[in-house]
Structure formats: C-alpha cells, structure tokens
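DATA SHEET
Item: assembly model
Revision: 1
Owner: S.N.
Input lines:
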Amino acid sequence: MKKLQNLISALILGCITFLYACGGGQSNSSSQDSSSKATATTTETPVIDLNAKSESKGVGKFTSVQLGPIDASMAEKGKAIFAAKCSACHKTTDQKIVGPGLKGITERRTPEWVMNQITNPIEMEQKDPIGKALLEKHLTQMTFQNVSDDETRQILEFFRKNDSIK
Ligand code: HEC
C-alpha cells in the first residue's frame, strides 16, 4: 500500500512538472506574438532590408571618398578611437549591443554612408531611409561622438580591415 502511495505521488509530481514546463513554453510564444505585433504596426514605411547591400551615400558632408589598399597604420588608429568612443554601443562582430554589430558594414554600406553616419548620425536618422529604419529597429539614437574627419576616416579604415578578415 505504501508503494502505491509513493507511485501516485511520483505521478502527481511528474504531472505538475509537465504542466509547469508547458506554461513556460506558452509565455515564450506569447512574447513572440507581441514582438510580431510591434513590427506589424511599423509597416507603413517601405520595408528596408538592413542587411542588404546599399549604394546610398547617405546625408552629410562626405560625397566622395577615394579608397586605396587598406592602410594598416590608419586602421590601428581607427581601432583605438573605436575602442574609446564606439565600443560601449557597438561590437565589430555581427552581435548587437545598443547599436548593431558592425561586421560587414563596409560590404553593406558605401564609405560615404559610413562616414556620414559617424559624423552626422542625427540627420541620418531623420532623413536617410536606412538611418530611419535603423532607429526604428534599435530604438536608440546614435549621437555624434566628437570625432574629427581624419579620425572618422581612420575608423572607416579599421572597419575595412575588420571586414577583410573572414
Ligand atoms: C550611444 C550608443 C552609440 C554610440 C556611442 C555609437 N553608436 Fe553607432 N549606432 C548606435 C545605434 C543605436 C545605431 C542604430 C540607430 C541609428 O542609426 O541611430 C547606430 C548605428 C551605427 C552605424 C550604422 C550601422 C548599420 O548597420 O548600418 C554605424 C556605422 C555606426 N553606428 C558607427 C559608430 C561609430 C564608428 C561610433 C563611434 C565613433 C558609434 N557608432 C558610436 C549607437 C551608438
């Protein structure tokens, strides 16, 4: 008789664990529901694939940037500036922190676009279609980090170097 009682309580415990596990699953799927609702409300603006290659030069003072072979010493300088002024919000992998991961940035954007984003982020968010879509996705404004034009060019060189390493 004792054995039977043990068996029954084991079964009940098993059922409770099972229900609990299912409950957890349900709460996951409901959070997915709410995120898909959030994207559904923003479909009025044309849908932009942020990972697609764009030829846009963006909005700002850089309209023509000439590139040569990757300059290692410029890239080193850019790396140090990135560590000091950008790394709180960006990784150079494809992983997002506050802002998007920047791996492949020189493949999906033009040099001019990248340099305008760095020196003119607020106007880019307001006027550039990709900038607008980025703000909508990340819900945080990137602000100007007080970098000079030369430093901006060095950061671009660092991104080119980062993207040359597969
Ligand atoms: C306060 C956090 C923050 C800092 C600091 C910051 N960014 Fe950003 N960055 C963002 C966010 C958020 C976005 C996306 C929304 C937007 O564009 O405003 C972004 C977007 C970008 C993009 C466009 C990415 C893409 O996929 O097209 C580039 C390039 C970029 N940042 C470079 C930099 C560089 C270089 C620095 C340092 C000089 C920097 N950011 C500093 C938050 C930041």
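QC remark: The two ends are 67 Å apart (CA to CA).
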